[in-house]
Write a sequence for this structure.
């Protein structure tokens, strides 16, 4: 049986005010793959994510999610998303940690959207996963930036999505929290076959976690596994041998 791609793009391009932001991006991900998206500032990484989520429309090219055109895709509960920038919560913002996490369940509900008693287990599991159970009754605005980030990650995970899209998720986490977070991703990826797409500026460590790399600079510079990246003469010419092997993490330089 042929496996349906979770994500597939063909010649995806996007222009804004006459400027080409992305040009002819073609790639595909199967279920359970972990893609790290890297590239310089202004390379179009967040634009690519916004296109995949349908927040903006491509100038040309196509996007398919779970085998269906993104234009016709209706099962958004299959997708968990954490945007790059979290809102600056006022200390008196009238929502607790638990209530923020529970919001992640509403996308899969019909109107009127309400969190039900039967959702309790999912909320508890997501909070436990991110180690925020003890602060569940605190107002979100009372938390540190790192704690707020963990709450929003839990919100993205609470509906047990099949595709998890994360835009710079570790920027507000301390080293211990970052390691715990990557452990959570590994568990989701390895044991539940959650497909993960993660934008990161940390090109030097993504090879320790992801199974595939997409290097973007308005055009697709590289897409594939880290072994292929490591052996690519084109990537040697592009990055230089030392930087190439720092990225791939496949052997010592």
């Amino acid at each position: 049986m042929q496996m349906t791609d979770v994500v597939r793009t063909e010649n995806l391009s996007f222009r804004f005010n006459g400027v080409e932001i992305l040009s002819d991006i073609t790639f595909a991900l199967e279920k359970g793959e972990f893609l790290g998206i890297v590239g310089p500032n202004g390379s179009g990484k967040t634009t690519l994510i916004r296109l995949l989520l349908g927040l903006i429309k491509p100038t040309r090219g196509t996007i398919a999610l779970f085998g269906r055109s993104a234009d016709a895709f209706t099962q958004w509960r299959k997708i968990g998303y954490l945007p790059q920038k979290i809102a600056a919560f006022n200390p008196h913002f009238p929502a607790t940690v638990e209530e923020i996490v529970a919001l992640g369940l509403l996308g899969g509900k019909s109107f009127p959207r309400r969190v039900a008693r039967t959702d309790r287990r999912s909320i508890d599991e997501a909070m436990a996963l991110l180690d925020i159970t003890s602060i569940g009754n605190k107002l979100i605005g009372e938390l540190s930036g790192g704690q707020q980030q963990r709450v929003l990650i839990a919100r993205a995970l609470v509906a047990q999505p099949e595709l998890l899209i994360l835009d710079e998720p570790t920027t507000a986490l301390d080293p211990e929290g970052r390691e715990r977070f990557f452990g959570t991703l590994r568990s989701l990826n390895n044991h539940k076959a959650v497909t993960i797409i993660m934008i990161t500026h940390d090109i030097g460590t993504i090879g320790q976690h992801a199974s595939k790399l997409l290097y973007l600079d308005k055009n697709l510079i590289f897409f594939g596994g880290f072994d292929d990246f490591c052996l690519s003469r084109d990537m040697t010419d592009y990055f230089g041998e030392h930087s190439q092997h720092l990225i791939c993490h496949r052997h010592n330089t």
